[in-house]
Amino acid sequence: MGIKLTFHGAAGTVTGSLHELQSNGERIIVDCGMYQGRRKEAERRNRVLPFPARSINSVVLTHAHIDHSGRLPLLVKQGYHGPIYTTPATIDLCESMLRDTAHILESDAKFVNKHHSQDEPVEPLFSMEDAEATMPLFHAVPYHKRRDIGGGITMESRDAGHILGSSSILLTKGDLRLAFSGDVGRPGLPIIRDPEHMPEADYLIMESTYGGQTHPPEGEAIGRLEQVVKETIGRGGRLIIPAFAVGRTQQIVLLLHQLIDQQRIPAVPMFVDSPLAVNVTEAFRAHPECYDEETRGYLTNGEDPFGFKRLIYIKDAEQSKKLNDLKGPMIIISPSGMCEAGRVLHHLRHNAGDPKNTILLAGYQAENTLGRKLEEGYKTVKIFGIPTEVRAKVKCLDELSGHADSHELLNWMEPMTRTLKRVFLVHGEPERSQMLKVQIQERYGIDTVVPEPGEMYEL
Ligand SMILES: [Zn+2]
Fold first, then answer.
1. Which terminus in the chain has less CB density within 10 A, N or C?
2. How far is the CA of 65 from the centre of ligand 1 (A)?
3. For 370-391, how does the pLDDT look when each residue is reduced to its tens digit (9 = 90+)?
4. What pTM does this model have?
């Protein structure tokens, strides 16, 4: 008996990862992520799970990013109470992130209900209680350890080098081996280790975020950050860095730490403005087993890689507002990375109009997000629904991308190519997936498919 594989989410798009396996009468899902993008459409898609939650026997989670983990509390709200298997660091990150998401959903619903009282009251996608009820379901499976997950399937994970605790997962049922890449990182990224190669497999379900694209070398990130900081401070401006609270924020902090240590940038005030980033940084501190050599070095010297003089972490909303009253150059790092929500919106609203300032985008900007509009050079954007002029410089720090580029993905999959019968490409805008498909077929001659949402394959 084989496995039936259905692609529910991140098929033809980069968010909402959700794959379902049916095996020996059991149902297992890999990831249960949230859609992001156009608000109304995302809202609508997020509310509907493609199966009854109670029919699922177990869940495997590749990493803590919300587009992979964000609908777990919804699954629990709708009646799921089975295990969720993932790495120890992912569990700690989910603790902060799922709570943070619940908090945002609850406050958004409250806001809408207050201002549009004539309509039916809106219920948040899930509540803080649902997020809290999800946490006891997590089961830690460290990298390289085998674990029976039901349906006659065992799982085993490798470090995907994408964020702290991120994994690629091999599922085995008898002779049948399925590899899920999860999100694959880039070699040389700060803090985390390089992506590990996977054992041989028959089928590979792989991300394709940057299909057909090449990133600048990672080593250039620090020089580029140095240049942007110097230019902005030279103009007497502020540097606003919208950054993902998980991973990107800690990487940028580490690079700024190095630049300050090496006296390459002047010591202006620096702020990490996000309660989530503060909690997530604690989770980073708790998992040195996931660090690369360089970051371990800080610990050996008794230093905190994520803290240094001049850097202030801000949790409190009042303190956050006070940043607007400060004068002179400064650096503010604040989520969200795609400028969709969070405190960075306030900072953008206050600072986008001043040509002395710089907005430094430090990650992938999905279609229809504010970040994408800034990246594409829009001169006026809506922030909180208010048209806001963009006169600040907008720069991108693609070097720090958490995702492998096309070439890096091809290299990553290379050790598996001898046995692979087929590759399924997910987690990419259609054009990106198509470009990677052509490259895989040309270089390795392996049958490659870009599945449509809802498509099922018998393996
Ligand atoms: Zn991710």
1. N
2. 5
3. 999 999 999 999 988 889 999 9
4. 0.89
Residues 205 and 222 in one domain: no
Among 165, 145, 161, 20, residue whose Cα is nearest residue 89: 165
Query: Which of 362, 381, 400 lies at the terminal end of a domain, its last residue?
Result: 400
Same domain, 201 and 222: no
Kindly state the tokens that stand for 212.
Answer: 């057909």
The percentage of residues in the chain with a pLDDT greater than 70, rounded to a whole number, is 99
- Determine the pLDDT at residue 304: 83
* Domain identity same for 228 and 312: yes
pLDDT on residue 118: 60
Give me ligand 1 centre to Cα 63, in Å.
7
Domain hosting 235: range is: 218-400
Residue 400 CA, ligand 1 centroid: distance in Å: 13
Ligand 1 centre from 137 Cα, in Å? 21
Please state, in angstroms and as integers, the Cα–Cα distance from residue 220 to each residue in 161, 398, 399, 400, following that order: 18, 10, 7, 9
Q: How far is the CA of 379 from the centre of ligand 1 (A)?
A: 29
Whether 337 and 411 map to the same domain: the answer is no
β-strand 311-314 against 176-180: which pairing, if any? unpaired
What is the Cα 315 distance to its own chain's centre?
21
Contact, 426 vs 206, CB < 8 A? yes
CATH number reported for the structural domain that contains residue 449 in this entry: 3.60.15.10
422 and 393 in a common domain: no
